[in-house]
């Protein structure tokens, strides 16, 4: 009679030290192979030289105080930050009257107060928030910025400039381009020949010309098609041109999402007895827009940067007002231009990076499950 054999499992052995923790991550991701090691060392050298030069120019060798160009000329070649400090008001408000700039600040604060809860998924009262941003806020901002009502001093749009114009053009284009783009994308896929042809013609015309041409047309040609006595100021014409231009690109992004939806989804919506608009609103568009979040945000970022082109028609956005102040002889130094461009680039980068990170957050939260 044989005795039973008892097997006792051994406890799992810990992972090798060189594969876990910070040391393991560095070894696996940066020095796994000789080629990885070479690329890592080259990248570190480039980063060191870039960061070292940038820190010296922006901080160590920079000038931080002074009333005119003399302070920057006496220092080692570095950033001339007093120029930005002296012109910061113009960079933000343009030629908006100083005593009335509180109105711009109030509009900025009202927009942020409404936008932050909308961007937070867990925040309550989303419907009221959307009504506030799309209904109340545009009217409030228009009245506050233009004036002429409720005892507010009128301010012509020709006096607007800087970051104010950049945000007005960008936000208007972004808000208008998404719904227009969705309608154009649906129209391009419509079974009605006239609607489909009109949408295709609109999209191809606006995608086939540069934004500069559209701005020129909106600024010069649009008044010729209006009835006598009806006219829009230059900023309004640019807003119309930017909205139409960006909506054509947005339409193609949305159309890509619609084509990515399996045919079974359309058939399932029809099987439920849903009409065209209900199936689009409840089933198709939510899935399509989720798939093309990167493309939508990429269009928004491109539109935000393209606002600099309004300078062509005489509107001074942030970059335009920075370039305009380079002509001030009291701040003429070799580093003034670089400092101004660096400031403008940093502001644009902050807004674009924020949009990019938020889109990544929404992609992860919605779990598109597509690599």
Summarize the structure.
The chain contains 15 helices and no strands. It folds into two domains: 43 residues; 297 residues, MetI-like fold.
What are the main properties of this structure?
371 residues, mainly alpha, MetI-like fold
Give structural notes.
It is built from 15 helices and no strands. The protein has 371 residues and is mainly alpha-helical. The chain folds into two domains: 18-60; 69-365, MetI-like fold. The longest helix has 31 residues, at 336-366. It is globular. It starts with 20 loop residues before the first helix and ends in a 5-residue tail after the last helix.
Radius of gyration: 28 Å
The number of helical segments is 15
Alpha carbon gap, first and last residue: 61 Å
CATH fold topology of the largest domain: MetI-like fold
Percent strand: under 5%
How many separate domains make up the residues? 2
* CATH class placement of the largest domain: Mainly Alpha
Helix proportion: 55-70%
The helix/strand class is mainly alpha
Contiguous uncertain segments of 5+ residues:
none
> What name goes with the CATH superfamily of the largest domain?
MetI-like
Q: Average pLDDT across residues?
A: 87
**What is the annotated CATH architecture of the largest domain?**
Orthogonal Bundle
Number of strands: 0
Give the ordered list of helices and strands: HHHHHHHHHHHHHHH
Molecular shape: globular
Report the biggest beta sheet as strand number plus sense, adding barrel if it closes.
Answer: none
């Amino acid at each position: 009679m044989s005795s039973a054999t008892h097997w006792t499992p051994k406890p799992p052995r810990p992972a090798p030290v060189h594969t876990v923790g910070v040391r393991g991550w560095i070894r696996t991701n940066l020095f796994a192979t000789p080629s990885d090691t070479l690329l890592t060392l080259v990248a570190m050298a480039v980063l060191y030289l870039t960061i070292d030069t940038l820190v010296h120019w922006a901080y160590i060798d920079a000038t931080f105080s002074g009333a005119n160009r003399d302070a920057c000329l006496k220092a080692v070649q570095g950033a001339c930050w007093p120029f930005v400090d002296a012109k910061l008001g113009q960079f933000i408000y343009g030629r908006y009257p100083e005593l009335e700039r509180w109105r711009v600040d109030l509009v900025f604060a009202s927009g942020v107060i409404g936008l932050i809860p909308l961007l937070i998924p867990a925040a309550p009262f989303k419907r009221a928030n959307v009504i506030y941003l799309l209904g109340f806020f545009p009217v409030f901002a228009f009245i506050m910025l233009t004036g002429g009502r409720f005892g507010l001093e009128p301010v012509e749009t020709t006096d607007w400039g800087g970051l104010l114009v950049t945000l007005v053009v960008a936000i208007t284009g972004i808000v208008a381009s998404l719904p227009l783009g969705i309608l154009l994308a649906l129209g391009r896929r419509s079974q009605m020949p006239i609607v489909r042809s009109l949408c295709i013609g609109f999209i191809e015309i606006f995608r086939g010309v540069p934004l500069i041409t559209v701005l020129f047309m909106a600024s010069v040609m649009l008044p010729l098609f209006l009835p006598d006595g009806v006219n829009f100021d230059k900023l309004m014409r640019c807003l119309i041109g930017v909205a139409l231009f960006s909506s054509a690109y947005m339409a193609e992004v949305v159309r890509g999402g619609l084509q990515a939806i399996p045919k079974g989804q359309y058939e399932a919506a029809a099987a439920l007895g849903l009409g065209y608009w209900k199936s689009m609103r409840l089933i198709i568009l939510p899935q399509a827009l989720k798939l093309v979040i990167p493309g939508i945000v990429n269009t928004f970022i491109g539109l935000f940067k393209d606002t600099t082109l309004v300078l062509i028609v005489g509107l001074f956005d942030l970059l335009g007002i920075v370039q305009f102040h380079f002509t001030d002889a009291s701040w003429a130094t070799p580093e003034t231009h670089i400092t101004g461009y660096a400031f403008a680039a940093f502001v644009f980068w902050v807004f674009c990076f924020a949009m990019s990170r938020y889109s990544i957050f929404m992609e992860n939260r919605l779990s598109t499950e597509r690599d």
